[in-house]
Amino acid sequence: MDFVATSASEKLYIQVTESMMDESVRERELKPLRKIQNNYEKLVITFSKALDDDYDGIRVENIVDWLLK
């Protein structure tokens, strides 16, 4: 995983990738987040529009959409 954002009571695990369109890349990027065995939020930020916005509870967002929130 690329980043961990923390506050007093929360964590956010962040993985950043250029694209999630290729299945092998998608699996490679999701693998480290899937290994984390806790209930904190997990997020993949990508330049491409994702095929799905959620993979097993891991949220996927386009970088532009994420920055504009």
From TrEMBL:
Q: Does the keyword Nucleotide-binding apply?
A: yes
- Spell out the molecular function terms from Gene Ontology: ATP binding
Q: Which UniProt keywords apply?
A: ATP-binding, Nucleotide-binding
Q: What is this protein called?
A: ATP-binding protein
